[in-house]
Amino acid sequence: ISSSESDSDSDQPKQKKKKVEKKEKKEKKEIKKEVKKAEKSSSSTKGPGGEHMFQLSTMRFATVSEFRGRVMVGIREYYDAGGELKPGKKGISLTLEQWTSLKEQMDEIDEAVKELS
Questions:
Q1: SS3 for the chain, per residue?
Q2: Banded pLDDT at 62 (limits 50, 70, 90)
Q3: Pfam families of this UniProt entry (predicted)?
Q4: pLDDT at 107 exceeding the cut of 70
Q5: Which letter, b or e, does each residue of 45-74 get, where b requires 16 or more Cβ atoms within 10 Å of its Cβ?
Q6: pLDDT digit string, tens, across residues 21-54
């Protein structure tokens, strides 16, 4: 193997690494932006895991949290475990992309709810 061949082989992982690093920086920027938005809201409380919790009903909450470096928006039922709220099995977690898609369709969803109620 000539030195020029081995140099080109080592460039490929570097390029992939740069793309991954760039993507990670973008995701971190989005996380910081979403966290700042959540912190501005006065109706949220901090959950046991540091997540922002918004009470929807007695034991149902919307949450904004971070999981594996990604911001997630969840709606989940909680239960009382000896005076501490714990997340139950019933619920859903949305990525930022899914959350944005849901918000963009909110007017149509509201119309459908009005038709059926």
A1: CCHHHHHHHHHHHHHHHHHHHHHHHHHHHHHHHHHHHHHHCCCCEECCCCCEEEEEECCEEEEEEEECCEEEEEEEEEEEECCEEEEEEEEEEEEHHHHHHHHHCHHHHHHHHHHHC
A2: very high
A3: PC4 (PF02229)
A4: yes
A5: eebeeebbbbeeeeeebebbbeeeebbbbb
A6: 776 666 556 555 544 554 454 578 988 788 999 9
Query: Which pTM does this prediction carry?
Result: 0.59
Residue 45 carries which side chain, given as an amino acid letter?
T
Give the position of tokens 């409380």: 45
The amino acid present at 87, given as its one-letter code, is P
